[in-house]
């Protein structure tokens, strides 16, 4: 009985991990490298940590962490609202992107 209980708990843990990972449990992780360059650094300079509008796009914004910019894009039909630091309806945002 104890062995059955241990096996059942193990199966539940595996199922939980599988569902958490979207149903995929990697069996073999091969490390591969390519000669292709990775993503380019955004053409944006961080002055401080925080959220900042993309000067080229009303939908875009940067999150600066330790002087490193990370670019994000709001969903379709929304603009970045620098006052709220999130995506918002265009009517609520005064965007002057180029």
From TrEMBL:
Question: What are the alphabetically sorted keywords of the record?
Answer: Chitin-binding, Disulfide bond, Glycoprotein, Repeat, Signal
Q: Which InterPro entries match?
A: Chitin-bd_dom (IPR002557), Chitin-bd_dom_sf (IPR036508), Chitin_bind-dev_reg (IPR051940)
SUPFAM superfamilies the record matches: Invertebrate chitin-binding proteins
GO cellular component labels = extracellular region
A Pfam family found in this protein is CBM_14
- Domain of life assignment: Eukaryota
Specify the signal sequence span. Answer: 1-22
Record-annotated Chitin-binding type-2 domain positions? 43-97
Task: Keyword check for Disulfide bond, yes or no.
Answer: yes
- GO MF, one example: chitin binding
Task: Please give the name of this protein.
Answer: Chitin-binding type-2 domain-containing protein
Q: Which organism is it from?
A: Steinernema hermaphroditum
